[in-house]
């Protein structure tokens, strides 16, 4: 094991190198740029033989990754916010053609007004593209996430692309300790890709992206739906194997922290959950029975794990660093939907926090705990959606 | 947990200083986190950077509001920025300056428990030939706070800058460590 | 008229029909073969090559969008009438006017 003090972006770049990625096509955008700069540096130093394809836009970056992946290569890219939005069409293409591309998205708020700070709406807006989504809490999870994502994405029963998501600046530009296993051990964990079909198998020529009439399109959509469902099992298997090999277990799609006897659980995704865990410890010392549930994988959505958690708690405070205009926070919306046809009916409230990089602190979590406790005791939900930081 | 805030100007290397300090503490087996203020930096504009050092893994992902230590890389910032904002009661301030203790204290809004002064600009000019003070100031931080050993600072500098550049910067840090005067206030 | 462009492959070609979801390939690739789709019956006019005028420049072969012009062992181009849609591009491009479009009796 080598431990290094690196930024979240460098952790992503090291992971791409250690995953023996063969093709990278990317376009720079703050705060993602240092990922691909680091990869370019690896290539310039002769440390890596990745084929780097400079392109003129994110749309082309994904197009190049799709081409590379269709030939059987392991392809990687990274982007943020507007760049991800520009890729949107090609994201459908990657999943529709069942290509296991891995991308790091550095969560950044969508403009206007211009912002370069953390916000999950960019990645959550890609919810329905058929990409798996993993939200990292810290730099270590960025690194581990990329390695695991390739293994899950390339699994014969999955064959779908995956997005590893990290917070702008809070992870991307923050230096912290990252434990990197030796290359030989990573190679054992992640052997070379075995594609089902490739464009370069000239004895068995194929056409990728053929036309499907109404008689056939439906079945191909169903196959993606089943592959996503199957991915849940594969994610748990791969997460368990990762834990056995490298000591960090990812067999749960929702990481539970001190929820066993908790009355109230804070549920959210990404870097803010580190602060929430810290706050849970503070609140526990003050006698509050609270816990944290970190949703690691948003797609596929861990419905079964959420149900198991929800049936034993009185209240869930959902922390959404995102918003779906005309509705509510996206994680809140999903979680409520999952529980509707079950017997688990905790009181749920949606707290809109940290949007556009607004700092979310331990004090904030304590305020939310007090609010939620009042709601649970009285059984009365004052409002479903709370724009928590709003200057009033 | 010890929280340190660096004040500098864009291009002076405050962010690098925060990272090197984290590297140095990491080399002593500590858990670390280093990050810039999440802003839009421009050369010459006031910037801040932060380091957290702890005995246990650091999970918190917020900015630093109540630092234990404040480090000022550019003496002109004392006039324009409230560098002691949120400083803890027993806090330490490290300043790169040619001024006297009394003059510096007069420009601080809040009195620290300890004040460490060093003319890092002169040291940098003498040793490096450039007025870049981020490595020399770390020598002063090591002396004033004891959060890291000067040997670890030198090691981390050599990790960051290779060859002669590393040697020179390490020498600047060592010289600053020796020259820094620490006052109990 | 006997097809000589695709040979045995044409005889083996069968329309691909998926009756159950399990029969589909995992990826949406090569859903069917166009060999079973004999577009020759779309024609109204058929191209006929006059080998006496033909200079084997192969411009017709290059331009055929289907493509349903092939080159015989003797070097002369020929039309695969199973697939030729009768668009007339070959006749239009032929520099020696060796290809004539003739109304087809069906």
Give the helix level of chain A as a range of percent. 40-55%
Number of H- or I-type helical stretches of chain A: 12
Rounded radius of gyration of chain B (Å): 15 Å
Trace the largest sheet of chain B across and list its strands: 2-3-1-4-5-6-7
Strand order in space, largest sheet of chain A: 3-2-4-5-7-6-12
Strand content of chain B: 15-25%
Average pLDDT confidence of chain A is 97
* CATH topology heading of the largest domain in chain A: Rossmann fold
Q: What is the ordering of alpha helices and beta strands of chain B?
A: EHEEEHEHEHHHHE
Q: Give a short account of the largest sheet of chain B.
A: 7 strands, mixed
- The chain-level structural class of chain A is alpha/beta
Query: Biggest interface and its residues per chain?
Result: A-B, 26 and 20 residues
Please estimate the helix content of chain B.
25-40%
Flag low-confidence runs of chain A: none
Short précis:
The complex is a heterotrimer of chains A (392), B (185) and C (106). Chain A is α/β, with parallel strands linked by helices.
Describe this entry's structure for a reader.
The complex is a heterotrimer of chains A (392), B (185) and C (106). Chain A has helices spanning 8-18, 33-44, 58-70, 81-96, 121-124, 139-154, 183-189, 217-246, 272-285, 303-310, 330-339, 362-378; strands at residues 2-7, 23-26, 51-54, 75-79, 102-107, 132-135, 162-167, 175-180, 254-257, 264-268, 290-295, 297-299, 315-320, 347-352, 385-386. By secondary structure, chain A is an alpha/beta fold. Chain A folds into 2 domains: 2-246, 3-Layer(aba) Sandwich (Rossmann fold); 254-386, Rossmann fold, CATH 3.40.50.920. In chain A, helix 12 (362-378) links the parallel strand 14 (347-352) and strand 15. The longest helix of chain A has 30 residues, at 217-246. Chain B is an alpha/beta fold. Chain B has one domain (2-184): Pyruvate-ferredoxin oxidoreductase, PFOR, domain III (Pyruvate-ferredoxin Oxidoreductase, domain 3, 3-Layer(aba) Sandwich), CATH 3.40.920. Helices cover 39% and strands 22% of the residues of chain B. Chain B is built from 7 helices and 7 strands, in the order βαβββαβαβααααβ. Chain B has helices spanning 14-27, 77-80, 101-107, 120-127, 134-145, 150-160, 163-179; strands at residues 2-9, 31-36, 46-54, 69-72, 92-96, 114-118, 181-184. Chain B has a 7-stranded mixed β-sheet, sandwiched between helices. In chain B, helix 3 (101-107) links the parallel strand 5 (92-96) and strand 6. In chain B, helix 4 packs antiparallel against helix 7 (163-179). Chain B is globular. In chain C, 14% of the residues lie in helices and 15% in strands. Chain C has 3 helices and 4 strands. In chain C, a hairpin with a 5-residue loop joins strand 2 and strand 3 (77-79). Chain C is elongated and about 55 Å long. The two termini of chain C are 14 Å apart. Chain A binds chain B through residues 3, 5, 116-117, 138, 167-171, 173-177, 271-272, 274-275, 277-278, 357, 359-362, and chain B through 18-19, 22-23, 26, 31-36, 38, 40, 58-63, 65. Strand 8 (175-180) of chain A pairs antiparallel with strand 2 of chain B, so a sheet runs across the interface.
């Amino acid at each position: 094991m080598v431990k290094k003090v690196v930024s979240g972006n460098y952790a992503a770049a090291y992971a791409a190198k250690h995953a023996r990625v063969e093709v990278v096509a990317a376009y720079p955008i703050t705060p993602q740029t240092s990922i691909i700069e680091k990869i370019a540096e690896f290539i310039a130093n002769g440390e890596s033989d990745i084929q780097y394809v400079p392109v003129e836009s994110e749309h082309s970056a994904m197009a190049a990754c799709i081409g590379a992946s269709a030939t059987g290569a392991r392809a990687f890219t990274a982007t943020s916010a507007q760049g991800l939005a520009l890729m949107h069409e090609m994201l459908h293409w990657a999943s529709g053609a069942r290509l296991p591309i891995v991308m790091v998205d550095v969560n950044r708020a969508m403009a206007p007004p211009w912002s370069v700070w953390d916000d999950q709406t960019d990645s959550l807006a890609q919810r329905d593209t058929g990409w798996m989504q993993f939200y990292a809490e810290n730099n270590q999870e960025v690194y581990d996430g990329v390695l695991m994502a390739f293994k899950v994405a390339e699994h014969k029963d999955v064959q779908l692309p995956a997005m590893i998501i990290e917070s702008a600046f809070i992870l991307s530009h923050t230096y912290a300790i990252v434990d990197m296993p030796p290359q030989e051990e990573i190679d054992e964990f992640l052997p070379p890709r075995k594609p089902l079909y490739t464009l370069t198998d000239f004895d068995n020529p194929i056409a990728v992206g053929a036309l499907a009439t109404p008689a056939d399109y439906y079945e191909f959509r169903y196959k993606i739906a089943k592959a996503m469902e199957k991915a849940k099992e594969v994610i748990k298997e791969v997460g368990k194997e990762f834990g056995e090999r490298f000591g960090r277990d990812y067999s749960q799609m929702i990481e539970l922290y001190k929820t066993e006897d908790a009355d109230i659980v804070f549920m959210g995704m990404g870097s803010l959950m580190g602060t929430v865990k810290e706050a849970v410890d503070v609140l526990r010392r003050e006698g509050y029975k609270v816990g944290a549930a970190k949703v690691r994988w948003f797609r596929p959505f861990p419905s079964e794990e959420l149900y198991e958690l929800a049936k034993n708690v009185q209240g869930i405070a959902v922390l959404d660093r995102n918003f779906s205009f005309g509705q509510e926070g996206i994680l809140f919306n999903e979680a409520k939907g999952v529980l509707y046809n079950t017997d688990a009916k905790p009181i749920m409230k949606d707290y809109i926090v940290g949007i556009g990089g607004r700092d979310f602190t331990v004090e904030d979590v304590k305020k939310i705990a007090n609010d939620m406790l009042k709601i649970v005791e009285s059984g009365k939900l004052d409002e479903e959606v709370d724009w928590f930081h709003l200057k009033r | 947990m010890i929280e340190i805030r660096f004040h500098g100007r864009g291009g002076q290397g405050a962010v690098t200083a925060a990272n090197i300090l984290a590297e140095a503490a990491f080399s002593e087996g500590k858990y670390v986190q280093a990050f810039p203020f999440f802003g839009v930096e421009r050369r010459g504009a006031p910037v801040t950077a932060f380091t957290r050092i702890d005995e246990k893994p650091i999970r918190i992902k917020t900015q630093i509001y109540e630092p234990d230590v404040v480090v000022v890389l550019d003496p002109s910032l004392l006039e324009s920025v409230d560098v002691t904002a949120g400083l803890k009661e027993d806090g330490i301030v490290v300043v790169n300056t040619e001024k006297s203790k009394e003059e510096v204290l007069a420009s601080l809004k809040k009195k620290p428990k300890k004040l460490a002064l060093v003319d890092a600009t002169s040291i940098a000019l003498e040793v490096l030939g450039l007025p870049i003070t981020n490595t020399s100031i770390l020598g002063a931080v090591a002396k004033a706070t004891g959060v890291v050993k000067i040997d670890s600072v030198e090691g981390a500098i050599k990790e960051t800058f290779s060859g002669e550049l590393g040697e020179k910067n390490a020498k600047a840090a060592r010289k600053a460590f020796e020259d820094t005067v620490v006052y109990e206030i | 008229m006997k097809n000589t462009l695709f040979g045995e492959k044409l005889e083996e070609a069968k329309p691909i029909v998926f009756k159950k979801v399990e029969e589909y390939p995992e990826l949406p690739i090569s859903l069917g073969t166009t060999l079973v789709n004999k577009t020759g019956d779309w024609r109204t006019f058929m191209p006929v090559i006059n080998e006496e005028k033909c200079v084997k420049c192969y411009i017709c072969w290059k331009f055929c969008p289907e493509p349903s012009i092939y080159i015989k062992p003797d070097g002369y181009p020929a039309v695969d009438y199973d697939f030729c849609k009768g668009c007339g591009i070959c006749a239009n491009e032929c520099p020696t006017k060796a290809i004539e479009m003739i109304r087809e009796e069906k």
